[in-house]
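Cross-posting from the chemistry board since nobody answered there.

I work mostly on the small-molecule side, so proteins are not my area. We synthesized asparagine and want a rough idea of how it might sit in this target. Sequence and SMILES are below. Is it possible to get a predicted 3D structure of the two together?
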Amino acid sequence: MTKKRIYIAYTGGTIGMQKTDQGYAPTAGFLTQRVKANPEFQRPEMPEFAITEYSDLMDSANMTPQDWQTIADDIRDHYDDFDGFVILHGTDTMAFTASALSFMLEGLTKPVVVTGSQIPFAELRSDGQHNLLNALYLAASHPVGEVCLFFNNKLFRGNRTTKVHADGFDAFASPNLPPLLEAGIHIKPSPGVQALSASGPLKVHPITPQPIGVVTLYPGIDSTVIGNILKQPVKALILLSFGVGNAPQRPELLQLFQDARNREVIVVNLTQCLQGKVNMAGYATGNALSRAGVISGFDMTTEAALAKLHFLLSQPLSFQQRLEAMEQSLRGELSN
Ligand SMILES: NC(=O)C[C@H](N)C(=O)O
């Protein structure tokens, strides 16, 4: 049987870092050489793979929407020649990149698995070898046609993930959707969780930087704080509200949201709780937001909503079309 071929795009992150005087930083050539020399990656059960190391290896804290575009274009350029894709990426903004790629890659029928590590590949007790080995193996043996994130034995839908641990191996969670697969002694799907199924062809959408505000509500927050964010040239605001989508019911605050809507600024309501979804019909304090033109983000993560807003604002759509798309599931990113 011919072996599957997987394309590895190495963008940077701790997985390939070495210690420097200023702390960990990526080093050109180092990870690629270590992976190729590691016999585990050459086992007969493993797929063939090719590694492309990006010229500007980065700590993912430095990633921008232009970098999301570079990765998406790279996948497009190699799409026909490979059976699946593994993106090696820093963990800090991995959930943002996985979310952005999910929107940019429409009609995906091959797996794109984003992974990385908390300890560099070359160090003692690194989770890098384990994560990369599993990501490669799953991309070849369990080919789901969607953008996933693999970390610590779980394959998640990428746009459902969030980084929840700064220094533990269990760094990612998918609070509102169980993992697609869990890799224990056996590799098992989660009951009731269906992978996405597109029929292709692949279409890569452009994404450009967009001015988007994010504000976390807190008791007694002054309306001018929010008013000032809305005064900037923002095109959208993510409101991280209380509970099922509640905010202080103050006339001047509600007026700010109404004015934003009239100026065609998208205001999306997400809950600041880790789990559960926005329901603005639940309480008068949430209902007032919806009457002021705030739309629901349901159970999207902040990362998914931020990436989706970038995506929608980068497409030639009307304000109304963007509002509607925000409240619909485009790539399995929300349940409404
Ligand atoms: N574990 C990591 O990869 C963290 C690193 N700062 C990054 O995001 O690139």
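Reply from a structural biologist on the board:
Welcome over. Reading the output above for you: The radius of gyration is 21 Å. Residues 151 and 206 are 27 Å apart (CA to CA). Happy to explain the token format if needed.
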